[in-house]
Design goal:
Layout (H helix, E strand, L loop, with lengths): L16 H6 L7 H15 L14 H11 L3 E4 L6 H7 L7 E5 L14 H10 L5 E5 L4 E5 L6 H4 L1 E3 L1 H5 L10 E3 L8 E6 L6 H5 L2 H5 L16 E7 L12 H6 L2 E4 L6 H11 L8 H16 L11 H22 L11 H8 L13 H21 L5 H8 L4 E4 L4 H8 L5 H9 L8 H17 L5 E3 L5 E4 L3
Parallel strand pairs: 1-8, 1-9, 4-7, 7-8
Antiparallel strand pairs: 2-3, 5-6, 10-12, 11-12
Helix pairs in contact: 2-3, 11-12, 11-13, 12-13, 12-15, 13-14, 14-15, 15-19, 17-19, 18-19
Length: 475
């Protein structure tokens, strides 16, 4: 995978082999670059894997040790644990610019040509050999392992066009290189490695051990300079799974990934990844995070498949979309999500979870139940010690408060009316967030308090037939 957004190389970089030597440039292998740049980042206190949340004390130290040791590595984890994101960040540890022989298919370093073409070019032109510059974003290749992946895709094959041009089959230049050699002097990632057919896995053995490739029996010695990384599901990455033992043995490190261990990391992940088109208050992002964790832990869910972080992201985005829809239909000035928007988004999340066979037909009921638990947990965590007696009294004295996916925030506030302690309630749920004083956020906090009081059986609630609306209080 080559980036189409790579910047233009600075004009002052050397453009010939002679100028490169005169500049004092030193050749380093890919693994040397990674090692030295990682050491520099650690000394400077810079996060070497930006954008990956919740791995600071677990996965990150293991990955750092693997790179410092110069090991090819496999990340093992269930779906949605950020394995691919983590692999893609490694390229940020390469030098920003690296020299290549201009026109080389294999991105050969001018000091260390590896192909017949590269060696001939340097021999013919000497110090006048033209030098190009490659940005680190172009030094990352990636392939999703699929059953139809061939040896030719990964390693290479004979190019019939070159043979038809008159070259003999014994000529190494008749080879069309695959994705792995074309990522020479870079990082190549294989996602879901066990999904490769066994005969295709065999083709990677030489790449990992001898650092060369073999194409259809050619006596082709091509010393590749790259880091090979992969991802896999732990269930498949065993001798009983779909991975051949010799290939397992050739990877230097196996690193287990995981879902966020702390609730704060789960919330941080949602805030980082979700593209929210309307305001989703902080306490509702916490509800989404708790909901996701409860689904993962539920015995009704197939634990082997996992519950991806995309589940939480999709929930937050759907929640924001519900608020945007309300704003568009009612003309509400500000689109702010409320807890009453959550039940409507649950059906859209059903396809992201694999349930146990015994739960067939009950999937949506299970999710709705877990969602209520998430709301109740958030309520207890933030409002368990807050005096809500004024709100309870308002409802107990016969006041009814209607909420729903098309009830505006102003309508909610008007039905609640002036109430002592609203400021404490909002502060307990939203902290010092600047938006917490807006009417939409205040209404959202009140509705969460009402739902929490209902779930802890302190007030009543009636669902209005037709869906989408409910009434707190009343007879």
């Amino acid at each position: 995978m080559t980036s189409h957004l790579a910047p233009d190389a600075p004009a002052d970089l050397p453009r010939t082999l002679g100028a490169l030597r005169a500049s004092g440039h030193d050749y380093r292998t890919v693994k040397d670059e990674l090692r030295e740049n990682l050491v520099a980042a650690l000394r400077a206190g810079i996060d070497p894997f930006p954008g990956v949340v919740g791995i600071e004390d677990t996965v990150r130290p293991q990955l750092e040790r693997a790179l410092l040791a110069g090991h090819d590595l496999v990340l093992l984890g269930e779906r949605g644990q950020g394995k691919t994101r983590l692999l893609r960040t490694i390229v940020g540890l390469l030098d920003e610019w690296t020299p290549v022989i201009e026109g080389s298919e294999l991105h050969e370093h001018p000091y260390e040509p590896v192909s017949v073409w590269g060696r001939r070019t340097v021999a013919e032109h000497g110090d006048a050999t033209p030098v190009g510059w490659m940005h680190r974003s172009e030094r990352y290749g990636e392939k999703l392992a699929t059953p139809d992946t061939s040896v030719g895709d990964l390693i290479g094959d004979v190019d019939p066009v070159k043979v038809a041009e008159g070259r003999t089959l014994g000529d190494p230049e008749t080879v069309h290189y695959g994705l792995v050699p074309r990522t020479n002097r870079g990082i190549f990632a294989i996602n879901e490695l066990p999904d490769l057919a066994e005969r295709i896995q065999v083709s990677l053995l030489n790449v990992l051990e001898e650092r060369d490739i073999q194409v259809r029996g050619y006596a082709l010695r091509l010393p590749l300079d790259l880091l090979l990384v992969a991802s896999a599901n732990p269930e498949d990455y065993t001798n009983r799974g779909r991975i051949i033992t010799p290939l397992k043995d050739r990877f230097g490190a196996e690193i287990r990934t995981h879902y966020p261990l702390r609730l704060a990391d789960e919330i941080g992940l949602v805030r980082q990844e979700a593209e929210l088109r309307a305001l989703v208050p902080l306490h509702l992002l916490e509800v989404v995070a708790r909901f996701t964790r409860l689904v993962r832990e539920s015995p009704a869910v197939d634990s082997r498949s996992g519950v991806s972080a995309r589940f939480a992201v999709a929930a937050a985005e759907s929640l924001s979309a519900s608020a945007l829809r309300r704003s568009a239909i009612t003309g509400e000035a500000a689109a702010v999500a409320r807890v009453g928007d959550l039940p409507a988004v649950v059906p859209t999340l059903r396809g992201k979870v694999e349930f146990e066979v015994s739960e067939e037909g009950r999937e949506e009921d299970v999710l709705q139940h877990l969602l209520k638990r998430a709301v109740a947990e958030t309520f207890r965590a933030h409002l368990g010690g807050v005096d809500l007696s004024a709100l309870v009294t308002r409802v107990d004295e016969g006041g009814t408060i209607e909420v729903g996916d098309l009830v505006t925030s102003d309508d909610v506030l008007r039905r609640v009316g002036p109430l002592e302690g609203i400021g404490r309630l909002v502060s307990a749920l939203e902290g010092d967030d600047a938006a917490s004083e807006s009417p939409g956020v205040v209404a959202s906090c009140i509705e969460t308090a009402l739902e929490g009081l209902y779930l802890t059986r302190r007030i009543s609630k009636d669902e209005v037939p037709g869906g989408g609306r409910a009434v707190y209080g009343g007879a």
